[in-house]
Amino acid sequence: MYLTIKEAAEYLSFPEEYVQKLIQEGKVRAIFDGENYLLNKEQFNTHLEQMEKYKKQIEEYLNEPIPEDMDVKDED
Asked: Per the database record, which ranges form the Helix-turn-helix domain (predicted)?
């Protein structure tokens, strides 16, 4: 499925200008049909899956209880 720049920006929650910049820098593959740039939606799936994975890892880390202070005594 192909998206216009506007649709891709909404899908990714990015500004349209940022998506245009990604296209110009060659970081995102796009096809120009004579009027609009079209982006394949599938190329973003891996990125979005990785972002969800990182969000879960950060959430687990932040929800991990803080260990009690260890009573360390200097034995010297």
From this structure: 2-50
Domain residue limits, the chain:
2-63
CA distance 14 to 3: 14
The CATH class given to the 2-63 domain equals alpha beta
Amino acid at 46: T
pTM above 0.85, yes or no: no
